Amino acid sequence: MQTKPTLFTSLSPALLHLYDLKNAVVVIIDVFRATSTIASALHNGAKCVIPVDTVEKAIALSKATGGIAAGERDGKLAEGLLHGNSPLEYGPDFIFGQTLVLTTTNGTRLLQMALDNDADTIITGSFPNLSAVCNFLLKENKNVILGCAGWKDRFNLEDTLFAGAVINRIKENFTIHCDSSLTAEQQYLLVKDDLYSFAPNLTHYHRLVDRFGLIDDIRFCLTPDAADVLPLYKDGLLMKG
Amino acid sequence: MQTKPTLFTSLSPALLHLYDLKNAVVVIIDVFRATSTIASALHNGAKCVIPVDTVEKAIALSKATGGIAAGERDGKLAEGLLHGNSPLEYGPDFIFGQTLVLTTTNGTRLLQMALDNDADTIITGSFPNLSAVCNFLLKENKNVILGCAGWKDRFNLEDTLFAGAVINRIKENFTIHCDSSLTAEQQYLLVKDDLYSFAPNLTHYHRLVDRFGLIDDIRFCLTPDAADVLPLYKDGLLMKG
Questions:
Q1: How far apart are CA A42 and CA B135, in angstroms?
Q2: Does the pLDDT value for residue B96 go beyond 80?
Q3: Which pLDDT score, from 0 to 100, does residue A68 have?
């Protein structure tokens, strides 16, 4: 009998170092909103998304590539940028054939940490590309780390819910001995039939909706398969896998 | 209207630094088994429990105080010690009037971290002293950090379940905007009616039961109010508060 690959869930970037990333596919999860925006842009025809860690790099790289510099800090448009981190900004009319250079508070930072820890393969996931992520993980049949981006190292339930959705779909094909994964799946099963009604319980919902009115963003970010592509990281770029 | 104090849950020692401990009561939670053992020893008449971070210190301090050196590493009796980290070892015949010098893998380390972060007040909690912990937190009416000890910085569901039990009892008296606390309470509500039947789902259960046969320890550690004292830390000692 062949041994199944393992699956672990890292609930915060501050816990990522506890897991062996070297032989694993790492799924970067930042539901509100980086990895939903990445899925949206690629689904709508962006040539690629370049994740960077500073606004300065986003501006410099966008000039060098003729791309669009975009991003947020603390949930709002970063100073010096004209485009933010809303998945709804990147419709096909705007983004088709373009390069998006994106910097965000949590998601792009976690991706950099996965690189620094020698991850074998890096993809990004969120509800809008749930099926693409699950299909890729099943096809690869390697160890999996579901990496929740959280909020400035704090635990975020929406990222964990997405981890739970993935686990619920693919668990038969993996060896899972991990209380984080158990909790993620149980939480997902509790609220899966109406993610959108549950959303006001999330701290991040209040940051985005009460402060910035981004209710349409929330709805998109919680809609399974609304932008079902696989963003695969290679040599500094996220492209359709 | 008076503002209610805040309550946060830290799901792992690696996340404790994200919270302001200076004006807070910090509850050290290590359900399997350090904080259950501490409750048991004090409930059965121990004069005090001295938590220390190394086996060497446990031996030296026990000699200096005429106390009992005890502890575990990786779930089993630490080399050089005659007594372990089982709450059932510390019945009244053995522990009454004695000083217990205890070193453990996770719980005593987290307590040291709370000290290093200038916690205002430190207590220890586990299901056997659930009511005493809740009553103390209500009486103090200060900010609360529920600190889960986990397993070598990994998330542990049993510690989070205890955090959820506390939140479920006292939440009306606190301001709680914290996805960790929301998750902890939801998990607790899912399994509270039969914690003991749920236990085999926990990774730590397998470490303790499959490897070391400690099923009676598990049962004690999950029994609410089985040793309902308040261990309060002051000047290096845990004593009945």
A1: 54
A2: yes
A3: 97
- Measured distance CA(A193)–CA(B96) in Å, rounded: 54
**Predicted pLDDT at B1:** 60
How does the average pLDDT of chain B come out, rounded?
95
DSSP label of B210: I
CA distance linking residue A120 with residue A142, whole number of Å:
10
| Stated pTM of the model | 0.96
Euclidean distance between CA atoms A33 and A30, whole angstroms:
6
Distance CA A26, CA B104 (A): 32
Report d(CA A172, CA A168) in Å as an integer. Answer: 9
Residue whose C-alpha is closest to residue B115's, from B37, B42, B38, B22: B22
Instruction: Give the dihedral sign, CA B103/B105/B108/B109.
Output: positive
Sign of the Cα torsion B116, B119, B121, B123 reads negative
Distance in Å, alpha carbon of A54 to nearest chain B alpha carbon: 22
Give the pLDDT confidence of B10-58 residue by residue, as tens digits: 999 999 999 999 999 999 999 999 999 999 999 999 999 999 989 999 9
- The CB density around residue A197, as the number of other CB atoms within 10 Å, is 9
> Euclidean distance between the first and final Cα of chain A, in Å?
30
**SS3 at position B148:** strand
Per CB-CB distance under 8 Å, the chain B contacts of A155 are 11, 15, 179-180, 183
pLDDT of A65 reads: 94
Joined tokens for residue A94: 């705007």
* Closest Cα in chain B to A184: B183
Compute the average pLDDT of residues A145-171. Answer: 97
Grade residue B108 by pLDDT with cuts at 50, 70 and 90.
confident
Q: What is the β-pairing status of strands B76-77 and B68-73?
A: antiparallel
Burial B168-207 (b: 16+ CB within 10 A, else e): ebbeeebebebbbbbbbbbbbebbeeebeebbeebbbbeb
Instruction: Please give the average per-residue pLDDT across B163-179, as a whole number.
Output: 98
Q: What is the pLDDT of residue B113?
A: 93
Closest partner residue to B18 (CB to CB) among A18, A154, A179 is A154
pLDDT value, residue A1: 60
Residues in CB range of B122: below 8 A, 6 or more apart: B25, B26, B28, B111, B114, B115, B232, B233
Contact B152 A18 (CB under 8 A): yes
**Are B203 and A177 inside 8 Å of each other by CB?**
yes
Which of B155, B177, B182 has the CB atom closest to A180's CB atom? Answer: B155
**Cα–Cα–Cα angle for B126, B131, B136, rounded to 5 degrees:** 95
